[in-house]
Amino acid sequence: MADVHVRCWQETYRGLMSDAVLDDPGFPAARERFWTAALTDGRYRENRTAVVEREGELIGVAMSGPSLDAAAAGARHLYLLYVVTPAHGTGAGQALLDAVIDPVESAVLWVADPNPRAQAFYRKHGFVADGAVQVADGIREIRMIRCVQAPSPVL
């Protein structure tokens, strides 16, 4: 999972983030520590994690959890969804998203800007930019939210 995470950062953020960060020899070990904690630490027990594999090779990872964002109270937070570049357009991203966030569940995420491919993917799945912007890890990000209305009761 750490290897896919690192590879996807290198593929996605090259040119948006410092090469020194992306090529840091300690970066894979840091992602291994992240995934070990995410999968074993009780603080993250409400998180949902999924992977996609093709022909015995891990090609994507995703994780969601309760939102810590006050503006998105009650929504699920998509913390990460990464698919290696050769697997883009194969349905792997859709499978990951559906595995960690129910299609009828309200959700929030932050996505790199510019990252038109990812933003289009999220728009396709009902997310809209709400105007919020932040800089995280040296990358400008926009917040996207998907609000799902409960069905009206039949009278």
Provide a descriptive summary of the structure in words.
This is Acetyltransferase (GNAT) family protein. With 155 residues, the chain is α+β, with helices and mostly antiparallel strands. The protein has a domain at 47-146: Gcn5-related N-acetyltransferase (GNAT) (Aminopeptidase). It has 5 helices and 6 strands; from the N terminus they run H-H-H-E-E-E-H-E-H-E-E. The protein has helices at residues 2-13, 19-22, 27-40, 92-100, 116-124, and strands at 48-54, 57-66, 76-83, 107-112, 128-136, 139-146. Strands 1-2-3-4-6-5 form a 6-stranded mixed β-sheet, sandwiched between helices. Strand 3 (76-83), helix 4 (92-100) and strand 4 form a beta-alpha-beta unit. Helix 1 crosses helix 3 (27-40). It is globular. The N and C termini lie far apart (48 Å). The mean pLDDT is 91.
